[in-house]
Design brief:
By secondary structure, the protein is α/β, with parallel strands linked by helices. The chain is built from six helices and twelve strands. The strands form two sheets. It has a seven-stranded mixed β-sheet with strand order 8-7-6-9-10-12-11, with helices on both faces. The chain has a five-stranded mixed beta barrel with strand order 1-2-3-5-4. A hairpin with a 6-residue loop joins strand 1 and strand 2. This is Fibrillarin family protein.
């Protein structure tokens, strides 16, 4: 068979690699529509005959894509997952997560900037599995009524000095026991004077102190300078009475 062949990613269900190039892609939930002028390629999944549209997932435009290219072991999301996305911006990565979790999944996309939020809301008009939430991630109680279920994963890309606390607070509200988290950490947003390795170590300790269980840390070089992604899970410890 001629044409583009895509192989399911060996570790990440819902992601694909273009044969011969290993280009990371997701199968478009809305064929024919570009979100951020990304490259779109028609092809078939290996062993199948039906043609689909795939969207190239650019690691220079997405922290989650760069983490996958960098070899992260788990992203805690797959088709059917419920994902809370903190720091959704205009929806570049959110759109790929929407593809990944598919029509049976849901993405609760939180963004505080009204300018980015307008772009996010416009994008979600065509993607019914995204719930746009224009609120401040520091105050999850303000949007708790918009998230009626516990989620399987929290992805966070919020460049704030107290981002570990913000993640923990949202986990306490919305993340199921043993649910996963993926957090992008930009060293100079925490402390621009300190060595990035020291900043990352400090943030990992803050996550541990907040009841989160970090399992892996991956540098995002060469895609992002002085960035890392930390992944792990949430161990919900009952409060003493």
């Amino acid at each position: 068979m001629f044409g583009n062949i895509f192989h399911p990613h060996a570790r990440f269900n819902g992601c694909y690699l273009l044969a011969g190039k290993d280009t990371l892609s997701t199968r478009s939930l809305v064929p024919g529509v570009s979100v951020y002028s990304e490259k779109r390629v028609n092809g078939t999944v290996a062993g199948e005959s039906e043609s689909h549209e795939f969207r190239v997932w650019n690691p220079y435009r997405s922290k989650l894509a760069s983490a996958i290219y960098a070899g992260v072991a788990s992203i805690y999301m797959e088709p059917g997952s419920a994902v809370l996305y903190l720091g959704a911006a205009s929806g570049t990565t959110v759109s790929h997560v929407s593809d990944l979790v598919g029509p049976e999944g849901v993405v609760y996309a939180v963004e505080f900037s009204h300018r980015s939020g307008r772009d996010l809301e416009e994008m979600t008009k065509r993607r019914s599995n995204i719930v746009p939430i224009l609120e401040d991630a520091r105050y999850p109680q303000k949007y708790r009524m918009l998230i009626p279920r516990l989620v399987d994963c929290i992805f966070m890309d919020v460049a704030q000095p107290d981002q570990a606390r913000i993640l923990a607070l949202n986990a306490q509200h919305f993340l199921k026991a043993n649910g996963g988290f993926v957090i992008s950490i930009k060293a100079n947003c925490i402390d621009s004077t300190a060595d990035p390795a020291a900043v990352f170590a400090s943030e990992v300790q803050k996550l541990k102190d907040s009841g989160l269980r970090p399992k892996e840390q991956v540098s995002l070089e060469p895609f992002e300078r002085d960035h890392c992604v930390v992944t792990g899970y949430y161990k919900n410890v009952p409060q003493a009475t």
